[in-house]
Design brief:
The chain has 15 helices and 21 strands. The strands form 6 sheets. Strands 1, 2, 3, 4, 5, 6 and 19 form a 7-stranded mixed beta sheet that branches. With 429 residues, the chain is of the alpha/beta class. It has 3 domains: 192 residues, FAD/NAD(P)-binding domain (3-Layer(bba) Sandwich); 135 residues, FAD/NAD(P)-binding domain (3-Layer(bba) Sandwich), CATH 3.50.50; 57 residues, no CATH class. Helix 5 packs antiparallel against helix 10 and helix 8 packs antiparallel against helix 10. The radius of gyration is 22 Å and the shape is globular.
Length: 429
């Protein structure tokens, strides 16, 4: 990219995961100019990272091939940081800034993992489940390493299967949900035979690996890196040696950009109508920001949003039935894997909750709101801008999220001044 570049699209998609790719493809196939932007060096998002060109994930390969044929302009390595005016976004990379103008916008910003602080959770090699999987996809050697997988939800099984396939030893998978919930979940899957087939494949790939329900990490131990983990395993305390902990307590929608644009949010989700349009005219949203729903729902929502943004409402409506079915499965997941209240007691007084500013649990529990804690302790004011500690404090203390101000991510001053410099040049001419 040159020092300064400017683009203008009929439909601009932010986020190149499954939802964003589906939206971009469907809009482009309707004959409009489409661009897709992602801050990663390649498309696919977290779930399709490194798999879009391989035989293992046919869905990823098929969608990527469709996107290449459709003529979508792909802009990778760009991070959107600000909206200086309606219909214009500013993005930057290492070499400069980029101005993105659009007529319609589709937000498919995905989600991140929720971390719940416990003693030792900041030790090296204590990682998010999806984060460790992503690092292995990018070349981290895992063969022969003992990896405990803990948290909640079907993602744990998928991550464990992937790590085991690449040579990791999985001594146990810890699921915080009780066996009674898992049993009801299994019976409910009779309405989704394709999910049963997926479950059977996962079970085969994890043969011999114990699944411990009613279980979660209590403390991580080690001198310079993780050496062992103390678990609460069905009411018993157990110490297990390990090299890595892959831990994930649900996903958190990335809604910072939608909030910056003025989109209404409720219960942590971007509010959309039947065509995936937000409360801001000409701005659509698809995938995890509208609620954590997995690849199937993300693809359906992306197709609806892309067609609607391209002015093909009738074609978009044809996908409403599939979306409704996928949403029913999401509701089942929410009921089954709801976080239990015991997890709020994992933090000790000295446990760091805000890693960036080193703010312990003891200091935070003296406050009654996110705003108060932020003002008095600097919690949430570090480089991650509350993306880690914010969701943690929402669960621990039931605090509401704070406001979002530009830039969405830390940005260079010259990027934020880009439109100002352009105006000065125009005036001098």
């Amino acid at each position: 990219m040159n020092r300064e570049e400017r683009y203008h699209f009929d439909v601009l998609v932010i986020g190149a995961g499954p939802a964003g790719i589906a939206a971009a493809v469907c809009a482009a196939e309707c004959g409009v100019r489409v661009g897709i932007v992602d801050d990663n060096p390649s498309i696919g998002g977290q779930i399709w990272r490194g798999e879009s060109n391989g035989p293992e994930n046919t869905d990823a390969s098929e969608w990527v091939q469709r996107m290449r044929r459709s003529g979508v302009a792909v802009l990778c390595g760009l991070r959107v940081v600000h909206q200086p005016e309606q219909g214009v976004l500013l993005a930057e990379d290492l070499s400069g800034f980029c101005e993105l103008k659009y007529e319609k916008l589709v937000l498919a910003t995905g989600a991140r993992e929720r971390f719940l602080p416990f003693h030792g959770w900041t030790l090296p090699n204590v990682m998010g489940a999806g984060g460790l999987q992503a690092m292995v996809k990018c070349g981290l050697p895992i063969r022969g390493k003992r990896v405990i997988v803990a948290g909640t939800g079907p993602l744990l099984l998928a991550v464990a299967a992937y790590l085991r396939k690449h040579g990791a030893e999985i001594p146990v998978i810890c699921e915080q949900a009780p066996w009674s919930s898992l049993a009801r979940f299994g019976l409910a899957l009779l309405s989704w035979p394709e999910k049963i087939a997926q479950g059977i494949r996962l079970k085969r790939s994890l043969a011999g690996v114990p699944l411990a329900a009613n279980s979660w990490p209590l403390a991580a131990h080690g001198q310079k890196t993780l050496e062992s983990l103390t678990l609460s395993r069905a009411g018993r305390v157990e110490d297990i040696p390990c090299h890595y902990l892959a831990c994930g307590f649900h996903l958190v929608p990335n809604i910072e950009l939608p909030l910056l644009l003025g989109c209404a949010v409720g219960n942590g989700r971007v509010q959309v109508d039947e065509f995936q349009e937000t409360t801001v005219s000409s701005v659509f949203c698809a995938g995890e920001p509208t609620g954590i729903g997995g690849v199937e729902l993300a693809l359906v929502e992306g197709q609806i949003a892309g067609r609607a943004a391209a002015g093909r409402a009738t074609e978009a409506r044809a996908w409403f039935g599939r979306r409704k079915k996928a949403q029913r499965f999401v509701q089942l997941l929410d009921r089954t894997f709801r976080l239990r209240p015991e997890l709020r007691s994992l933090s000790l007084p000295g446990t760091a909750v805000c890693r960036c500013e080193d703010v312990p649990y003891l200091r935070l529990r003296q406050h009654t709101s996110w705003q108060s804690a932020k003002l008095h302790t600097r919690c949430g004011m570090g480089p991650c801008q509350g993306r880690i500690c914010g969701p943690a404090t929402q669960f621990l203390f039931k605090w509401g999220p704070g406001s979002v101000r530009p830039p969405v991510f830390p940005a260079r001053v010259e990027t934020l001044m880009g439109p100002t410099r352009q105006l000065e040049v125009q005036r001098s001419e």
